[in-house]
Amino acid sequence: MTRRERTTASTRANRRYIQVMKKVLELLVCFLHPVAVILIWIDLATRRDIGGLAKVAWAVFALIPLVPFLYVLTSGDLW
């Protein structure tokens, strides 16, 4: 096997590894996002420091995959 063939094989293996890891992360997000949404809804139901409209807004926006991360990072204090 020549050097070029080894490099090409190594590059293909690296690309395959990256594709597999990307798929694993995507599956992990698919499982964790619903859990995060449920936890946000539970937290919103028990909070008394924000109004009803803000709670509804957070509850609806939590369905968007990026929002649970924002909610956690800001502790729900964007309102």
Topology of helices and strands:
Blueprint: H1 3-46, H2 52-61, H3 67-74
Features:
single chain; about 80 residues; mainly alpha; 3 helices; rod-shaped
Summed up:
Helix content is 78%, strand content 0%. It is mostly helical and 79 residues long. The longest helix has 44 residues.
Q: Number of helical runs? A: 3
Number of strands: 0
Shape: rod-shaped
Quaternary organization: single chain
Description of the structure:
- It is a single chain.
- With 79 residues, this protein is mostly helical.
- It has one domain (3-74).
- It has helices spanning 3-46, 52-61, 67-74.
- The radius of gyration is 21 Å and the shape is rod-shaped.
- The N and C termini lie far apart (63 Å).
- 6% of the residues are buried.
